[in-house]
Amino acid sequence: MFVPVTAIATFEGEPPVAFVGRESGNVTKYINAVDLDNSQPRAVGPTISLDGHTGAITGIVAVSADDVYSASTDGTVRQWNAATEVEGKRETRCLQFPGPVRSLAVAGEIVYAGGQDGVLYVASSSAEGPTIATWEGHRDAILSISQLEGIVCTASSDNQVRVWDATGRCQYLLVGHTNRVKFVQLLSATSVLTISSDETTRLWTIGEMVAAAEGGAAAGGAAAPDGGAEDPQAATASSAAVAEALEGGGAPYVPTVRPAAIVAFSEQIQTAVVAGSNTFLGLSNGGLCSINTRDFQRTLADFQARNRAVVSDEKKRVEKDRVERSNKLRLRQRKNVQNKKKELRKAERDEAAAVFAEKLRLFKEQQEENGEEEGNGEEPPQEEELPEDAPLTQEHEDALAAFTAEEERVTLEAIDKLKAAAAARIESVAPIAELVYTSPPESFFKLPFTRHYPSGVQEGVVALSVQGRSAYAGCGGAVRVLNVVPGVTAL
């Protein structure tokens, strides 16, 4: 009976080599990785047994074909010399930790060990000897570690992902998963991929975190209040917490980030591994699938660009409409003032005509009373024509000024209402630019960045490594070698 496989690592070569870790604590090096395939009867080539662990193997990192690290629930990380010509003791280094190690990453001389206790142990070598730093923050086991360009990400059973700088300060919490996070991958200095038992994979943008890290503005250590709450409000830290942190009180403030994309899958994912631009996923039904992270990021970028364009176009439309309506209000105001001025001028002419008519009437009455013949005596009054540009009387000037002021008040009030309506409309569409890309589980294998590889077995894939065209899938006590070239399902 085979002992269950718990970890696999491969290293490129002709042929590629493979390291298989089992529940018993044994690590076996296969000189030819193809010999791992138990589905076909074949003669197995030479192997090298790396013995020393007393607990299940939880992670393997092959630095080269002969240099390999292994982590175990026995609380150790061991480095091995797996060269074929070596005789005797192969263990070259043993790091002891307080409890079981659940995940492992290696970057040069630095070893990252994720503890069952939620602590990230960082072991490095110096002139004084090996040192082990502890990065605390998670409240449950660290299940996955990813490191890139001085940034370290850890995924945990506490439903959170923490982003650390090279000094061990937690710069950001990635909050939103509702079950343990099994896998984390730094795609770049600004992009993170995560996979969780909540049956979603999520893409996160951490550009602001990098800026904060470079500026030294953030320090870490505090856990998010609600763990992996799905509530969008969990993505915004309270101003009180920020103020307290800035004043030096309470736990250090750690900003939280919400995902930019949430893709649900229809099968339970048990393990994952990175191979170039693809992340391969081992499924509970024995199959494999892959996510092309470049295409995933491109799909997200296109989605965000379209949404930003929608918001931008709507802003332009709203602003154009506001300006046009404001101009019409101003035009109406000018016309109203002009009409009022004409009205006042007409009133002055009417008043002058009435005065002249009264003078003429009185003149005629006087002539009739005096019995004078027409053409003799006093000349009749002459009507005076008011020029169009004649100044208004002070009374009418005051009336025009009051009317103009009232028109200005009414117009400004209407323009302010237009501005408020435009601002409200722009505010209402602004969230479109921040929409999260989402996809339901039934669409997972129809997405442009996913691919499915059936394995032909029913037992779940619990360990996985990909080298070139081949995927090495640990299913129970056996290993299947699958061809991951599109259109081919097995060797």
TrEMBL record:
Residue spans of biased composition, Acidic residues class: 368-388
Transmembrane segments: none
Record Gene3D superfamilies: YVTN repeat-like/Quinoprotein amine dehydrogenase
Keyword Repeat applies: yes
Keywords, comma-separated and alphabetical: Nucleus, Repeat, WD repeat
One of the record's GO molecular function terms: U3 snoRNA binding
InterPro entries: Rrp9-like, WD40/YVTN_repeat-like_dom_sf, WD40_repeat_dom_sf, WD40_rpt
Segments annotated as WD repeats: 50-81, 135-165
GO cellular component: small-subunit processome
UniProt keyword annotation of NAD present: no
One Pfam match: WD40
Cellular localization per UniProt: Nucleus
SMART domains in the cross-refs: WD40
Top-rank taxon, per record: Eukaryota
Positions of the UniProt region annotated as Disordered: 366-390
PANTHER family: U3 SMALL NUCLEOLAR RNA INTERACTING PROTEIN 2 (PTHR19865), U3 SMALL NUCLEOLAR RNA-INTERACTING PROTEIN 2 (PTHR19865:SF0)
Protein name per Swiss-Prot or TrEMBL: WD40 repeat-containing protein, putative
Species this protein is from: Bodo saltans
Taxonomic placement: Eukaryota, Discoba, Euglenozoa, Kinetoplastea, Metakinetoplastina
